[in-house]
Protein 1
Amino acid sequence: MRTVIYSMGVSLDCYIVGPDGNGWGAPDAELHRFHNQQTSELGLHLLGRGLYEVMVFWETAEERNPSALASVSELDVAQLEFARIWKQLPKLVFSKSLAAVEGNARLSRADPVQTVQALKEEDGGPIAVGGPDLAATLTAHQLIDEYHVFVYPVALGGGKPFFADHTRVNLELLETRTFSNRVVYLRYRRT
């Protein structure tokens, strides 16, 4: 059975975006390399429309290669590596409003719950879930096996939460790691 993972960066008070809808944190080179490793181990990435529209940037990031510059930072190198990994990774985008998707992605208008139930039974690598709305639906149906939380050292006081309101999930802590930029990684398994 395939493992389904919900992974996002969050503020200390567990919001993935602030009250104004803007993002507030980006990985440094060390954290980006960690994300690269995790992403390279996936068999499939599930996305909702909103996150897909953010992540489609990576489909052409390699063409904007900064290697022609006199000096390329560690972060540039990590980002280019991520772009290569992302382009190869199969993706399934759940949307009723998108007309088409790019790259190694398929568009689905099917019920995500039924789709993920079937995907979990197939052979293959872990499945990542991206986007809080899609994750909330799958969490409500106990289809997410692991939660990977990257806690950034900032409190936002409101915004879009990692978990939907009135969500209860019992978790067992499997792993922690603190990065040099003070981001703390927490890996939990649903019990």
Protein 2
Amino acid sequence: MKILLHACCAPCAVKCVEILQKEGDTSLFWCNPNIHPLTEYRARRSALEAYAKDIGVEYFEKGGYGLQEYLSAIWPNTSSRCATCYKMRLDQTAKYASENGFDAFSTTLLISPYQDHNLIIEIAKAAAEKYGATLLYRDFRPYFREGQAQARALGLYMQKYCGCIFSEQERYSKKKG
């Protein structure tokens, strides 16, 4: 089976790739217009690209730094920004998988205990249906801590927030309180 794995970052990809490689040929896909600032975007993208090269998996990329596209999509209803963000990324992943001969797609978003797991599944299923792709659902959450430890041991860039400007604000707001 040929699997396209949307990856939000290298640390989240570690265990997901390890698990999916047992099921088929897994490639990494970068599409994350939500990540801000540009330096953070570049750091995460470079880390994922280097990780893919180090482990010998194919790496694909869709679009570039998409801050304006992301902000336009979520404004003015920023309270539902996560759903919009998931949709932006998973639609592109499902479309790329369908157009490029992948048997299935998945996402590293499914490893994070901090993301809305059920909403991700719902949006991924809708994207799969929209583009005639197959979602390969796996609950990677039990492997989150182990994956993070492996990422640290590998010396991968470890970020401190989900990536969007709002999560960065929340990160700093919590430190002050």
Protein 3
Amino acid sequence: MLTILHGVHNQASRDIWVSQTITELSKVSGLDHLSLLDAGAGQQPYRKIIENLGITYSSHDFNSYSPTNQEAGLHVEWPHLEHDYVCDILDIPTSAVFDIVLCTEVLEHVPDPVATIKHLSKLVRSGGHLIVTAPLLSLIHQAPFHFSSGLTPFWYQHWISNNSLEIEKIVQHGDYGDLLSQEIRRFLKLPGFLQIPISNLLRPFIPRDLASSGGFSIFVLAKKI
């Protein structure tokens, strides 16, 4: 069943969910040692917490993104870090499998997200887990490597179940009020601490069907069957 989180920040709340999910898996795994692959790791934002949990961390990225003002879209500073696997995400070798495969904010940046889910499923050991987050709605960013504005819960329900994976949790991160609050802040250049107060102010005036139709991201935790 889909859970919808209201009154949340975009990145900060996502970081909390990912960290808590990995921590929970480390506690209930029943294994003495866990391995994790961070696919499309970029700046490796979760590496520290993963290693602090005693999990062996491996990272992947294609290391080809280079911000330029010549392209449309939002841009950020992007130093390239060292990764265990530097290649297209579909070329990560399947000779090694992992207890956890993590893929955060990546699927919108690959030309074929269906093929990506299929490949990532092959990298998860039997009984292991896949953690995925990707936008539900987003502006163009990290151009030109941005191929979709978001994926719905129904996309995951279809493709996860078709790749030897079973969804354990699926979460819509934010609602239309949260999304609208973010864009108002972005347009008016307001500070981040106003995110939740603005969304709480807007929410009573938003029709219920509209409120649930928008948000920041979809979070998925799936188990390899």
Protein 4
Amino acid sequence: MSKVTVALGSFVVGALVMFLLGSHTSIFVQPASAERGIVVGGAEPVVPPLRGNVVSNSKFENVIQPLDGLDFRNCVFKNVIFEYSGGSYSLANAVISGAIRVNFKGAAANTMALHAFLESLNAGTKPKPLQPNAPLFREASNVQTMTVDFISPYGQK
């Protein structure tokens, strides 16, 4: 008997058994899947890609600077307030010093609020109420000057 005949015969027997039994249980562990709740089409924000808005070799000090949609290369930021609403950004070879503050607005503020909610649940405390349409901010003081690459994970080409 040829190998092809044995293989075809095994397949036919297996198919008939499956047809008669009507179900099959895998011996391999299957990943758990959760059912989805209510989904609203078009409600999830889409991060647009960077579109060539390149700013090179510039210095920003004591200013409010939006991040959304901008591609900074070889720039210096000192005591800057960044405004961020959830869009794509790129800080490549950026020199950061002094106090840096980020005001989160729009979709980014919603993300920060959800993050704070999860932190409060982990701490076993009741979440603080938030003021609608108000930006949330985070601040960091840089003791030393740092050169960094910080590029948004979404919206890149």
